[in-house]
Specification:
59 strands, mainly beta, globular, single chain, 4 helices
């Protein structure tokens, strides 16, 4: 029988969306789409993760992560967020989301936003394009940049061109407001608000007026705002900005009219914001790149796009603007190469975007989902701190931590007879807020023909397809199980090393197409072919008897496999390891190390980073829990590393530092075997192989001949 060796047990799960093959054409090449994950992320929000491979060669992989949001859902609204709530500064999107989330206002998901400044002199983290948060201008950025945002009706807006103007309307004159939260130039008037920080950061050469909204007023980006003067300072600068208020800061010719204002005076500001020549009161805005929209009026841009392959972040909406789409494509990785903005547009158009914009990509690309954090694999290796982000937020009436709805991770799954399957469930409250990604305590039941529920809660597949039913209190769900014929049963391992301090339950597997699924060992009939060496129980648990090699066999309805068992029982609690007999050395030039099986004699000469390493590839005996190194040295050693490899992965060396006292004489140090194998015990790791013992020689060691005696390497 052919053995299927795998270190992972992967269930062959197919959700309802991926049950039907999908395809997409990207830059003229046909791709197959595999939907690997799809679930409700919050009220009106669906997260989808897909993997795409070329149809013919199954290469050029792309991994895309999307969040579709029903903008008409009564609980949902959208917010732009700045890193640490300031125009200058960066923060990871997941940190922004967690900081903003409360018990009744939950950030469901979103992505990183605009491109941002990376030089200190420009203000690291400051976005490049038009930045609006909750109806206030955070930055009137570059007008050459596209934008994505939301108007005061909550409708998604994607803009190619935009323009801004601001005016301070006084009793007998009108002054131009040049910028918001931007360096004040000669003869300029600038509006500063809370997004600039706690103060204006201006010099003393000007006049600054603190203003507040009059009763019933709110900030807007298009229209007239009625304000009242709270305070005026001349020749001071750096005025404090209380939350919710703003400062009008003037220089040169602008100070003449500002100096006439007094506390309690009424003033007005009029803003005019046009997006594609239409006046709009935007509540939120994030700037994009300076190419065309990647999707415009249902058509993917074919000419004016960013024709470089990178990780990408996109934001779009359907024709009506009622459905919003966030999209991230991973890149700069073997598993996902990245894409141009044209390909990003093609992906977003496939998933319903009528208009879409390209936001900052590369290592900044991040899709955040509540309860998961960053769901894509960022090219930096970890989530990058960025200038701003856009999120979908659910505001619910009351705090509710009770699960009222459960939904399975897999709506449909294909399994062979006798496979063991433990389904997982998402848990939601009454408002569809995701509370738990793996709900415990779910009760399973099914018809007898479909299978049985095991004592440990797993589902044992029977002979006939049907629905697996689940319940948690009054919440119910079901999973359709398609049962396939079992025609291949195999053990995960061909052979194992065992001793009388450990037992091993045989890991049995079956196959569905190219996927591996576990089969409970209890359903097989077991036999030891060498009972004098090892025994096997009815549950498939192997016990070592005496040293030697033996075999056990398992049978499931005539399908049979065998496993070789090598037994190495320790004769005592510890065992001296003395099999380094053909060692080789590496050392700096001139050390000339010599080896007699125990002593290492070498000529020490002062050099940069002096070391001495002995190496040989030989297996360690049995299944030790720890390794003790004992040496005697007349050279001062500042440290050592012991390199061992697992039998299951002989290409990867685990080099573990051994802390040695910086002294001569006898030294003993013990280290748990888990330092090399990891915390989770896996029988496949054994035997452990010795590779290298490296000593770091302290530079205080005098030049000349020295000896390091390996008194013992003891296995405990």
């Amino acid at each position: 029988m052919k053995h299927h060796l795998s270190l992972l047990f992967v269930l062959c799960a197919f959700c309802c969306m991926s049950a039907t093959a999908q395809s997409i054409t990207l830059n003229g090449v046909a791709y197959d789409i595999d939907t690997v994950r799809m679930f409700q992320a919050g009220p009106g929000c669906t997260h989808i993760a897909v993997r795409m491979l070329t149809h013919e060669k199954q290469d050029k992989p792309l991994n895309a992560f999307l969040l579709r949001v029903d903008a008409t859902n009564p609980y949902i609204h959208f917010e732009e967020m700045l890193g640490k709530d300031k125009l200058v500064g960066t923060e990871r999107p997941s940190a922004m989301a967690k900081r903003r989330t409360t018990s009744t206002s939950i950030v469901v998901g979103g992505t990183n936003g605009d491109f941002f400044q990376t030089k200190t002199e420009n203000g690291v983290g400051k976005p490049i394009g038009l930045t609006i948060q909750n109806g206030e201008y955070a930055l009137v950025g570059s007008t050459s940049r596209r934008l994505g945002g939301f108007d005061d009706q909550g409708k998604a807006i994607l803009g190619t061109n935009w323009s801004y103007s601001g005016k301070l309307v006084l009793a007998d004159t009108t002054l131009k407001i040049h910028h918001a939260n931007y360096n004040r130039g000669d003869n300029q008037l600038v509006l500063f608000n809370q997004y600039n920080g706690t103060s204006t950061n201006t010099n003393q050469y000007g006049t600054e007026v603190l203003v507040e909204l009059k009763d019933g007023e709110q900030w807007k980006t298009n229209g007239r705002v009625h304000l009242r003067v709270v305070k005026k300072e001349t020749g001071v600068g750096n005025m404090t900005i209380p939350s919710g208020k703003a400062v009008l800061s003037g220089h040169g010719t602008m100070t003449t009219e500002l100096n006439k204002l007094e506390e309690g005076d009424d003033v007005d500001i009029t803003f005019t914001l046009k997006v594609d020549d239409v006046k709009m009161n935007l509540l939120q805005s994030v700037g994009g790149d300076n190419y065309a929209l990647i999707v415009h009026d249902g058509k993917v841009e074919q000419e004016n796009f960013w024709n470089e392959v990178h990780p990408r972040t996109g934001f779009g909406a359907t024709m009506t603007g009622d459905t919003v789409l966030f999209c991230v494509v991973d890149g700069r990785q073997v598993q996902s190469q990245g894409c141009t903005t044209k390909v990003l547009g093609e992906i977003m158009r496939h998933y319903g975007a009528w208009n879409a914009v390209n936001w900052d990509g590369g290592g900044s690309s991040c899709l955040y989902i509540n309860q998961f954090g960053q769901v894509n694999n960022g090219s930096d290796g970890s989530e990058r701190a960025v200038g701003n982000a856009m999120f979908a937020i659910a505001d619910v009436p009351t705090e509710d931590n009770a699960i009222s709805t459960i939904r399975p991770h897999d709506l449909r799954i294909k399994l062979p007879s006798y496979a063991a399957y433990r389904p997982h469930f998402y848990g939601y409250n009454q408002y569809e807020i995701l509370l738990d990604t793996d709900v415990e305590g779910v009760r399973l039941e099914c018809d007898k023909e479909l299978g049985t529920i095991m004592e440990d809660g797993r589902f044992l597949v029977g002979q006939k397809s049907g629905y697996l039913r689940a319940s948690l209190g009054e919440a119910t769900a079901k999973i359709y199980v398609e049962v396939t014929e079992t025609n291949d049963i195999a053990f995960r391992l061909d052979s194992i090393l065992l001793d009388n301090r450990h037992t091993y339950q045989v890991e049995v597997q079956s196959k569905v197409k190219d996927e591996t699924v576990p089969v409970p060992s209890e359903v097989l009939e077991w036999e030891s072919l060498t009972p004098e060496v090892c025994e096997v129980s009815a549950e498939g648990i192997i016990k070592a008897i005496k040293n030697g090699s033996g075999k056990i066999a398992g049978d499931l309805q005539g399908i049979r496999d065998t496993l070789t068992v090598h037994v190495q029982n320790p004769a005592a609690p510890t065992r001296a390891y003395n099999e380094i007999t053909a060692a080789q050395f590496t050392a700096p030039s001139g050390f000339n190390p010599q080896w007699n099986g125990k002593d290492i004699v070498f000529n020490y000469a002062i050099t940069r980073a002096p070391f001495l390493a002995v190496y040989q590839t030989v297996p360690l005996y049995g299944l030790p829990d720890s390794v003790r190194l004992e040496i005697t040295t007349d050279a001062v050693l500042s440290g050592a590393t012991l390199a061992l490899t697992k039998n299951s992965d002989k290409q990867s060396f685990a080099k573990v530092p051994l802390t040695l006292p910086a002294k001569t004489g006898t030294i003993s140090v013990a280290t748990p075997m888990a330092a090399w194998t990891g915390a989770t015990f896996d029988i496949a790791s054994y035997p452990i192989w010795f590779n290298e013992l490296r000593f770091t020689i302290d530079t205080s060691t005098p030049a000349g001949s020295h000896t390091i005696t390996i008194d013992g390497i003891t296995l405990c």
